[in-house]
Amino acid sequence: MAESYSPLAPWVLFRLNNQIYGIPASSTQEMVSIPEITPIPRAPEYVRGLINLRGSVLALIDLRLKLGQPSMTEEIDSFIASMRLREQEHADWLDALQHTIDTGEPFTKARNPHECAFGKWYDGYHTDNPQLTGLFLLFDAPHRAIHASADMVDEQLRHGHKDKANELLQQVRGKHETLLHTLFNDMESALRAISQEVAIVVEHEGNVLAIIVDAVESVETMAPDSIEELPGNHGEERKYIVSMLGRRSSDNSPVLIPDLGRVISEAVQDTAALNMPSGEEG
After folding, report:
1. Does the reported pTM lie above 0.85?
2. Are 248 and 22 in contact (CB under 8 A)?
């Protein structure tokens, strides 16, 4: 049977992969930064390990993985790897321009800064984070300068000024490629700094553990009469871990409600054979 919830009772709302989720505040004990994690051999992937919270040893559950989503760590690592690939492509681009100077062979790579892989990604990238937005805007000038150097080198080569073409390219590498490298490093540092996950300590039927979320949004009530069971999720064997849907009182935006009892009970079952504790004193 689906649990009965009161929308007017307090709810802890948190963000997970750009979606708002909610759990009853009555099931929440506290919210903490994630301390050192002790991995557990043979544990399910969604069980990150154990944490010691003021003497209580708790299983730590990655709610993203439990819901079949990539973890935040995987998502950030993938994003950074993509950025680093774009950086390497521009080093290769400049190497190809050097090859043109050295051999006289035509330069065939994209000259338009909007047509390279980074340019297409850059033009379509948006973020609500002001720190990342400010950093991202700084990429534009050095990126354009690198692409503009192809026509400038061509101009020098057409006039037989190979030495000047070489000098121009070295200036571009020393100034604009170096700045681009610094910005990629700054972007990676900023991404890792703002992507600090949060643990919410939750309890159900005497079992206590911690769930990892991207960020805690607020504690608030839901819109009256807004909580309903998701279609196709009825009966004793409910198909989905996210079992219900509510609406925020402030703007009526959707709030996904996971079956917290199911999450906790399945974690307890999945880890029982590993002798993992559930809120026991260390």
Report:
1. no
2. no
